[in-house]
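Journal club side-thread
Mid-discussion, someone asked how the predicted structure for our own chain would compare to the paper's figures. Pasting it here so we can look after the session.
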Amino acid sequence: LKQLQGHLTFHREKTLTFTAKDISAQINQAPGELSGKISGIGSEDLLVDTHVIAKGLDLAHLAELVPALKRMKLAGLLDMDVNAYVPYADPIRSRLKGSVVAREAGMELTATGLAIDKGQLNLELDGRDATIKSMTLEVNEQHLKLSGRLSNPVEPNIKITVASPDLDLDRLLPTVRPKQQEATPASNQSSRGEMKPVTAGKGGKAGLQ
């Protein structure tokens, strides 16, 4: 974190409030800006009302600060210019407005056997709506192209179009095999009683348009 400038104040009565004014910094050479207020910290009335700008933010560097993201091998570059209004006590009033662009994004979800790579995203936020203007990615080396709209985060209404030239479901949705059960003394006495785990197979190919 370099070239940190701006004003940050805090106030505490019943709860804690942070106010940021024109804060700017270089985050691993990526410029970022923050203004706004976070109030009600430590209570059920937590309110986030901020404006965040980032350009060329390296997600791998960000993941170093969050162990869960580091385990997922999060990678890519992020540009964002977003106004966020999020009252946690009344989520239906939440509003996000701005844009998010990701380039060469990727991650690994080991538990589900999914590897995401070469992600490109152009997302537009408008109040309670999010429009995927364009999105391409590779999931387990399967090329996907998505577009659509998501609205109402409380009761989500999702309309997504997915296109792929040659989709192999075996590679997209690999079967995750359960761990071999430990043998009991009784099962060691005779192989007739041995039980093998059963896994449901997934197969087929599909072209989605």
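Post-session note: The chain has a mean pLDDT of 82.
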